[in-house]
User: Fold this.
Amino acid sequence: MSPRNRRILFSLALLIWSGVILYFYASGRITKYLAPDFRLISLGGGLGLAVLGLFNLLTAGQHADCGHDHGDGDAHDHESGDMHPLTAFALMVVPVLLSVAWTKDRYSEAAISRKTMTVDEVRSPFMASMLGPITREDLEKNHRKTEDGYYEMSLMELFFSSGDAELQKALGGMKVQTEGRWAEERADNDAGTRKRLYRMFITCCAADSRAIPIILEFGKEPPEFPDGGWVRVSGTITFPKGKAGVQPVLEVEQSLAAEEPYEESFMRN
Assistant:
């Protein structure tokens, strides 16, 4: 293959990569993969690839001096390699296009189970020292109350409260409402009266995410909701000590299907 055609081919590969990144950004699908602070970086990367690909495409036919002399009969091709250009192009482009076509923008249940979806006792002395003394009155004052008398709290607040004895004392017995994704409870559930509610916590991207759960106790056979579906639950928060230590358990009094939020975020109230 001629040097010009190789340059055109690899320029197209850059433009395809750029198009994929810019498509995910413009369509909003990027919210499933990157935390907000990193989305502008991906936009800049996509635009940079577009500029580089267009520049290489427009200058593909130009002759460029390699900067040193060649010997007699030495073609000295700087652009050829051991792999055929079409093979290299396919390796760069086909996996990306197949990934875009096949991804469901969410985790499978098997992937969720590998994301450490456990309710282990959380220790957070730093958070406790930063927050200072907390009372039930403080919590009630800073959280909105529903018409049914439940205080709206994020699942993250309830999960991390298991690492702060003072917060547990203030929260214990409080009527709260929260929401998350529905899942089976496979640990310490011999009576079959428990389920699990979780949300995905993402630091920068989907690769480093983990499932943050709490336990739901119904005291009877739980209602039916689709696995991974969004559910809003209301009840009394308790902190019994289980095999893994103190765990947040919500004794559910009301549950209903909820709308899926625009993106996975613990800041949704």
User: Anything to note?
Assistant: The beta strands are 151-152, 175-184, 194-201, 210-217, 230-238, 241-242, 245-246, 249-257.
